[in-house]
Amino acid sequence: MDLDEAFRTVGEFGLYQKQALAIVVLAQVYMASQSMLIVLVGFTPHYHVEQQQQVPSGAQGLVQKVVFTEDVDSIVTEWFLIKQQAYKVSLAGSLFFAGLLVGNVVLGPLSDKVGRRPVYLSGLFLEVVFGYVTALAPSYEVFAVSRLLVGLMNGGIGVVSFVLSQEYVGKSYWAMTGTLTSLGFAVGIALFAALGYMIPPWRNLAMAANSFGLLSFLLSVTLPESPRWLYCQGQMERAEQVLHHMALRNGNAVTNLMLQRDAAATKVSKPKRGQPGLLQLALHPVLRIRTVVLMYVWYSCSLVYYGLTLGAGDSTGSRYVNVAMYGLVEVPAYPLCMYFINKHWAGRRKSMSGFLCLSGSACFCTVLIPANGACGQLSGSVLSVTLLALVGKLMVSAAFNIAYIYTSELYPTVIRNAGLGVCSMSCRVGGIIAPFVPSMRAVHSSVPFTVFCLSGLSAGCLGLLLPETLDAAAAETLDQL
């Protein structure tokens, strides 16, 4: 039997797959806490500088003393990252995202070559280790380097864990498992905010957040290798062993499960010499077109998502509530996109493009709201802008989730992680650029939302060039494209 038939025999989403997915989702909760760590541990409280008169060594002089007016324990208060040193907080955040970018490009393709499980386990283990280095850092320099290394591991295992969540189950469940991993990340942001409220000291918070990763690693040791990856590598016996184990844990009596020995597929499934996975994305005519379109879609999703977060988020109020809302606002997007992508009249392609266009349209509507002279916008208009921005973020969150699912279905198994890694790289570029867009208000107040509008609409239209994958057979090799 072929692989899809084998999954239907052993159970496409049985008890064993549910347990494996729960472990992968727990890893998403941990990765979310690491992504948002700098928001809480890098918080800058109010302070003032006092001039104190001292007489050191017989010489009279003035000494400045920094006094923090809030009872906050953060890296800012510990290492006095204020004034000329304030940039170091943003630098630590930038180093984390730079690590994400490198991890997407390096570890994603590596898992296509050596396997999903070894890359996932080693990356998760190292992220936990570097996470403890963050919590115990004796100086800012050690803290900053540890954030870079945590980001490197986080970016890599983020892609691999998403792929595992889909390759453990039958193709008919890919949309659901992909959505659950994204939902786990959103819930993880809210849980991290609650954890930060209960454990304010930044070192204790970093240690507690890292405990999610330690638990996830201990549970992940029980995960098997992806049977789809084993199959496309020609390791039929190992793939059959994993499937037999799944069937046993699912309670299905499967005694004679044998996969097709397709010599041609096995030969093609392994990358040719001199053609690493990333190079095939540019050389293969079908993959080249898909990659260019998907990279722009991911870039636009990230630009609009993070840009609207900065524009719609309220900088005042409790920082814990702000972080929690940052995650919870995404939750309604996932059942929404799940409904549409499984309908034949919508599917993956139209749903992703539609949500992107709706996000761009919401941003366009904010441009039409008039300002009230020098006093700014009317109170009703402010509320309308906020609501429209949140609607835009809701729509782009749904599009972002579909982009993950859709991308994994557009790439064959032999190069899936490489494709997701490159798309994630362009996603990180969009995230890096997003904070600079609001500064374009210096040109005109409507420019930032115009940028988000054009990005969403153009990505939505460009996404229509991709093929539909709903109910289509999953490609395992390049020949099947």
From TrEMBL:
Its main location: membrane. The chain crosses the membrane at residues 20-43, 89-107, 119-138, 144-164, 173-199, 205-223, 289-308, 320-341, 353-371, 383-406, 418-437, 449-466. Keywords: Membrane, Transmembrane, Transmembrane helix. GO terms for molecular function: transmembrane transporter activity. The keyword Transmembrane helix applies. Pfam families: Sugar_tr. It is found in: Membrane. One of its GO terms (cellular component) is membrane. InterPro entries: MFS_dom, MFS_sugar_transport-like, MFS_trans_sf, Sugar_transporter_CS. It is a multi-pass membrane protein. Residues 20-470 form the Major facilitator superfamily (MFS) profile domain. PANTHER family: SOLUTE CARRIER FAMILY 22 MEMBER. This is Solute carrier family 22 member 15.
